[in-house]
Design goal:
- The chain is of the alpha/beta class.
- It folds into 3 domains: 234 residues, 3-Layer(aba) Sandwich (Rossmann fold); 76 residues, Tyrosyl-Transfer RNA Synthetase (Orthogonal Bundle), CATH 1.10.240; 79 residues, Roll (Structural Genomics Hypothetical 15.5 Kd Protein In mrcA-pckA Intergenic Region, Chain A), CATH 3.10.290.
- Helix 11 packs across helix 12, helix 13 runs antiparallel to helix 16 and helix 14 packs antiparallel against helix 15.
């Protein structure tokens, strides 16, 4: 296992004087954590021939979430700098489950679920990358196209002989599972070989010579680079980004309500906008550099705002991120909904909405049930805890009764009531 480190003196020089647009952007915007042969990569990125780089995405859910967005942005930066991105969909590796950063095995999905998830995930990439047949157009491929066809003995003879158990058990993901006495299946143990083989296959099929990814993938990625060298003698590069956390130390994209999904059917454009609008003050500049195309000089001015003026920068961030993923119209609607909801005390046209019938009201709809149905809380217990804390409101009036029911008289002239959790989470119940 060859885990090449870059030369740190060269790294500091490159931070200030990279030759290529790609490395300049990646360093200045905060994407660099670790790289193999960074000076050589910088030279290659400044050459006449475009680099071909890829990132793999397993299909474990029907949407990726904000935690994956920095990787998608890496591919976007690659393309913006004149190089060719490959989006590798893990139709094959999803059947195994990546053990990196996991304490237990993932549930195994069947082929139908994986295919459905893949189709759903694809829609996000079409908004952030340009696909086509040109030299720098993105392509999307499925590693199931070759992994599903592998025969065990030929695979072990071609690939397996380049990996030793001695080094594989020293991989951080393996060591942690073993030391914590958590089971690791032989199936998961082979994920390293398959990911390395993906890099080799992409190198031979498409001339792919760069793998990008998060810092937790470093060990797997350098093994792929080394496999390419051993099998066909080609030179390849590995580039990893840092783990993105908030100023308060939480993992990027993790909220009390769960993952911040990228697909609109799992997280509405308004909710997505609101996620970015609620960014901590200290993170505004960092997130603008990572997740938007806003020029760096403009970001410098916005992140320098102080006091209540930083809210202006947060709105710029929310609009930029939402426009990129959902379009300018959705971003504008989200901003207007927020203005109506917060500044004017209204309901806003784009808030998450659920419909209830008069029959439902007559049968009895508790306040707790309404908040769960609206997706503002995850469970009845969470709703009750919020009631005890005085955080649940109907039409801006706090609820104190755990057994309270939704009443017909609470609906306004438009047949709506506003549900709120604290000051930032709102939804509409509409009488259908």
């Amino acid at each position: 296992m060859v885990e090449q480190q870059f030369n740190f003196s060269n790294w500091f020089i490159l931070m200030n004087n990279p030759k290529s647009e790609l490395i300049q952007v990646l360093t200045q915007r905060g994407y660099l954590y670790q790289s193999t042969d960074l000076d050589e990569l910088d030279t290659a990125a400044n050459g006449q021939k475009p680099l071909v780089g890829y990132i793999g995405f397993d299909c474990t859910a029907s949407s990726l979430h904000v935690g994956s967005l920095v990787q998608i942005m890496l591919l976007r930066r690659l393309q913006q700098a004149g190089h060719k991105p490959i989006v590798l969909m893990g139709g094959g590796t999803t059947k195994i489950g990546d053990p990196s950063d996991k304490d237990k095995s993932r549930p195994l999905l069947d082929d139908a679920r994986i295919s459905a998830n893949m189709a759903s995930i694809k829609t996000v990439f079409e908004k952030l990358l340009t696909f086509g047949d040109g030299p720098t157009d993105a392509i999307m491929v499925n590693n199931g196209d070759w992994l599903d066809k592998l025969e065990l003995i030929p695979f072990l003879r071609t690939v397996g002989r380049h990996f030793t158990i001695n080094k594989m058990i020293k991989m951080e993901s393996v060591k942690r599972r073993i030391s914590d006495e958590n089971e690791m299946t032989f199936l998961e143990f082979n994920y390293l070989l398959l990911q390395s083989y993906d890099f080799l296959e992409l190198n031979e099929r498409y001339g792919c010579n760069l793998q990008l990814g998060g810092r937790d993938q470093w060990g797997n990625m350098v093994n792929g680079k080394d496999l390419i060298r051993r099998v066909n003698g080609n030179h390849a590069y590995v580039f990893t980004s840092p783990l993105i956390t908030t100023a308060s130390g939480t993992k990027m994209g993790k909220t009390a309500e769960g993952a911040v999904w990228l697909n609109a059917d799992m997280r509405s454009p308004y909710e997505y906008w609101q996620f970015w609008r609620n960014t901590e003050d200290a993170d505004v500049g960092k997130f603008m550099r990572l997740f938007t195309d806003i020029p760096l000089d403009e970001i410098a001015g916005l992140e320098a705002l102080e006091g209540s003026e930083i809210n202006t920068a947060k709105i710029v961030l929310a609009n930029a991120c939402t426009t990129m993923l959902h379009g300018q119209e959705s971003a504008a609607k989200a901003e207007e909904t927020a203005r109506q909801t917060f500044a004017e005390g209204g309901t806003g046209d784009d808030l998450p909405t659920i419909d209830v019938t008069e029959e439902t009201l007559q049968s009895g709809l508790s306040v707790v049930q309404a908040f769960v149905l609206a997706g503002l809380v995850a469970s009845n217990g969470e709703a009750k805890r919020h009631i005890k804390a005085g955080a649940l409101k109907i039409n801006d009036a706090a609820i104190s009764d755990l057994q309270a029911q939704i009443q017909a008289g609470q609906f306004d002239a438009q047949g709506q009531i506003k549900l709120s959790v604290g000051k930032k989470k709102h939804a509409i119940v509409r009488l259908a």
